[in-house]
Amino acid sequence: MILDVLNKMTKKITEFQKKVYAIVKQVPRGKTTTYKAIAKKLHSSPRAVGQALKVNPYSFVDGGNVPCHRVIMSSGKIGGFGGNKAKNIKKKIQLLKKEGALK
Question: Is the confidence at residue 2, as pLDDT, over 60?
Answer without folding.
Answer: no
